[in-house]
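On clarity, I found the account of how folds are encoded harder to follow than it need be. What matters is that the chain and its backbone geometry are given together, residue for residue. I therefore recommend that a typical entry be quoted early in the introduction. An entry of this sort, consisting of the sequence and the corresponding backbone structure tokens, reads as follows:
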Amino acid sequence: MSAPVVTFTANPSLDRTLVLPGPLPRGGVTRLAPSSTEPGGKGVNVARAVAAAGSDVRTVLPAADDDPILRALHGLGLPTESVPVAAPARTNYSLVEPDGTTTKLNEPGAPLDGAARAALAAALHRHAEGARWVVLSGSLPPGTPLDWYAELVRSLRDSGARIAVDTSEAPLQALLAAGPDAAPDLLKPNSEELAQLSGVPETHLTTNRAAALAALSELHARGVAEVLLTLGADGALLSCAEGVWSATPPRIAVRSTVGAGDCSLAGYVLADLAGAPPAERLRSAVAHGAASAALPGSAVPTPAQVAALRVEVSGVRTVGLPGTATAPPHTSITTVPAAGRDVH
């Protein structure tokens, strides 16, 4: 029997979080606080967060049978389908300062040959049958065709599962350029990625709500059914057929932003599985992201930690399709701090 959620991570990683005692002095010696290593990659992070909430999930990824990332995933009890590859999973490093500022150092990962890509696609399709959500997340390994996500979305249509994609840069551009038949049911950009897609400067999107709404409407015109725009410390916007909603996160002491966007996506999917309406799906997404940011490293929150947070949700446009009306031209969305961005 298929799990209701299947995640796919083409470029998995071991995420090493290094906790700094203060700002990093270039050229100096820094004595680290206790650090941590977790199995990662954006799809793996989504799967860990879904599992932490008590929902069944399966994650698909490339990894050798003796790769440390598989040992770590098995240690967590996370059901995994792996396609053997020769090279070990990459290691990503996060340097976390006391105020929560996070600097990421990501290795590129090992290339996937055609046989490995075909085996991964077959495994993904096998588990997508009967699933309610398939989540394709993260960067693509070097040498992977940039339109691979678009190809996977098209081929997953007959599974009956809803498809979410969270990626950036060239793979994101290729996904949206491939046409409406390759558009996912849910896209989760941040403000930087929305700027890449719209051609509008990020600072304009984050300070002018009308510009942000116009950019979201353009994504709908290109075939995307729902858009969850994450804004780090400034919350999120959800745009879908029922309307547009804005969420303000609770005040928290940020410990690490690593994986916070992935937890937001998991929170959205979990709420959808429970049959929640759009505003509650957005509330769940922001609560999960905030709860994650309050934890060290790439830890994922428990249901109790999520439930303890209050998230305010308000309707921006709750009648008609997105794009049929405009917000006041100078309504502001507070500029997103760098520490609040997702990093792929």
Observations:
- The radius of gyration is 19 Å.
- Residues 320-344 have pLDDT under 50 and may be disordered.
- DSSP finds eleven helices and 14 strands in the chain.
